[in-house]
Amino acid sequence: MAVSSFSSSSSAAVAHHQGCFLRVHARFLLHDHQQGRRNRRCPFVVRPLMASLVAMAPAAAASARVSRRTASEEAVYEVVLRQAALVEEAAAAPGPPRRRWVEEDVAGSWGLLGDAYDRCGEVCAEYAKTFYLGTQLMTPERRKAVWAIYVWCRRTDELVDGPNASYITPKALDRWEKRLEDLFEGRPYDMYDAALSDTVSKFPVDIQPFKDMIEGMRLDLWKSRYKSFDELYLYCYYVAGTVGLMTVPVMGIAPDSKASTESVYNAALALGIANQLTNILRDVGEDSRRGRIYLPLDELAEAGLTEDDIFRGKVTDKWRKFMEGQIQRARLFFDEAEKGVAHLDSASRWPVLASLWLYRQILDAIEANDYNNFTKRAYVGKAKKLLSLPVAYARAAVAS
Ligand SMILES: CC(C)=CCC/C(C)=C/CC/C(C)=C/CC/C(C)=C/COP(=O)(O)OP(=O)(O)O
Q1: 276: CA distance to ligand 1 center in Å?
Q2: How far is the CA of 135 from the centre of ligand 1 (A)?
Q3: DSSP type of residue 373
Q4: More confident residue, 144 or 165
Q5: Residue 217 lies in a domain
Q6: Ligand 1 pocket: which of 87, 160, 236, 243 to mutate (most atoms <8 Å of CB)?
Q7: Predicted ipTM of the assembly
Q8: Looking at residue 273, which CATH number applies to its domain?
Q9: Which domain holds residue 92?
Q10: CA of 272 to the centre of ligand 1 (A)
């Protein structure tokens, strides 16, 4: 991705980010147009964003018209299209599950599937309380499926981030991937796998985002620097954007939504990216103490900063300006995601909106800490957290 002068002023930084973002989405638009496919209906996510960004960054808008998609964007977009096509296919041919196995097969020696799902629910309740609360609004089928996906993601993450992380090798991840393929074929290894195996037999969930999440874990085994936002974008897709693509087939799109399937999946992807970028910005200090820098090095250099500045961890004006730009970019992804929420099935809106707002507020907290994300951990206070829940609930209800 071409990078313009990023360090000269904060408005230039913002324009730069908007430019990058604009280029990404302009490519999506161009692609849809060339393919003449599913975006027959309103691609709600893209147009308003384009309009506002064109007003703010005309130079970037001009370059957007001629730029091409990068390899990362191309790769990710292909997965979005694939997942959206699978959902549309399932909607066009409702009826019995698409896969060959049935509940009794996957339950096998793992006992009753109901127990397996209950255990998934317990894990979700323990590690993601707010989200678990939100899942209570969903139909039992959907709620159980979301728990099963959550548990698989958590276990995958724990391979490289958990207590046994130092023993994890690429070979172990290959075995985990083989196990994934097996459960998608109706051959689960344990009861948590059995729950997911059952879920993917009932909902049109593609295997690719799951494989891509494992790929993200592989990256984490050896990669600790990201040359550009394009590289970071791919990483964020692998470890978080994938979650959006996995869960929307279960949460469902509102039957009366006029949005294209693809645009809702793009919004889901955007939420994963926004969450991950926020996570990265919150944890700069913590990551640097583990020798990791999840920031685009080219943008860092353009801001007049070096890797040593990160390791030293001093908040300077250059750092503040750089962070302003990074936060602005994350917010653009949140904005895009938020537009998609209204198109989810009504019972799924509230938990998604509440978690979106809670995570987004971490960005405000970084600002409130005067951009000291080296030694201060930005967090959202209990009062604000609690307030987000009814507000999100009311907003989700209005949208229905
Ligand atoms: C917007 C639309 C249309 C759909 C929503 C689709 C969804 C649910 C997207 C969410 C994707 C998601 C939850 C990604 C994970 C992001 C992330 C960085 C999680 C961090 O998890 P932890 O590491 O447990 O967080 P903490 O470090 O904050 O505890």
Answers
A1: 7
A2: 14
A3: T
A4: 144
A5: yes
A6: 243
A7: 0.94
A8: 1.10.600.10
A9: 70-98+204-398
A10: 5
